[in-house]
């Protein structure tokens, strides 16, 4: 690989809540799963490009007892029924203050995916709606793309190295090797 040439993209991780599906806190009801408008197209496009496709999600409700493992599995199963099978689910089930290395923005979920898929973290990207998602990617040496929604804070948008308006736009830009050409994002609905 020539110096300065970015590594080949081998896989994309998607944040779950707020990126693939509408964020319903502590959801254990599969009937409440609602994919976001471009999620199916984004996942389909990544698969069609021959990439590994996975989910990286913080689910601290398991540790606190607000969410059961069975409920989490049923919701994840419904997401797969709607969006197709994923090559891996990488989930941090620790409490927010546990100090683990897998809770985003720590790199653990990205490095777990890299090990599972036998690729370098630098060959992965993580698409999400928060600074924690982008931070997890950066901390692992992967690419991070922020796709803001109304719950994303304005400072997260400003600080993100790469911003896309939709999940499909994020995937297309990653496939075109343009992860750092961030477009202007209309901050309407983005929290200040």
UniProtKB/TrEMBL annotation:
<keyword id="KW-0963">Cytoplasm</keyword>
<dbReference type="InterPro" id="IPR036412">
    <property type="entry name" value="HAD-like_sf"/>
</dbReference>
<dbReference type="InterPro" id="IPR023214">
    <property type="entry name" value="HAD_sf"/>
</dbReference>
<dbReference type="InterPro" id="IPR004446">
    <property type="entry name" value="Heptose_bisP_phosphatase"/>
</dbReference>
<dbReference type="Pfam" id="PF13242">
    <property type="entry name" value="Hydrolase_like"/>
</dbReference>
<dbReference type="InterPro" id="IPR006543">
    <property type="entry name" value="Histidinol-phos"/>
</dbReference>
<keyword id="KW-0378">Hydrolase</keyword>
<keyword id="KW-0119">Carbohydrate metabolism</keyword>
<dbReference type="InterPro" id="IPR006549">
    <property type="entry name" value="HAD-SF_hydro_IIIA"/>
</dbReference>
<comment type="similarity">
    <text>Belongs to the gmhB family.</text>
</comment>
<keyword id="KW-0479">Metal-binding</keyword>
<protein>
    <recommendedName>
        <fullName>D,D-heptose 1,7-bisphosphate phosphatase</fullName>
        <ecNumber>3.1.3.-</ecNumber>
    </recommendedName>
</protein>
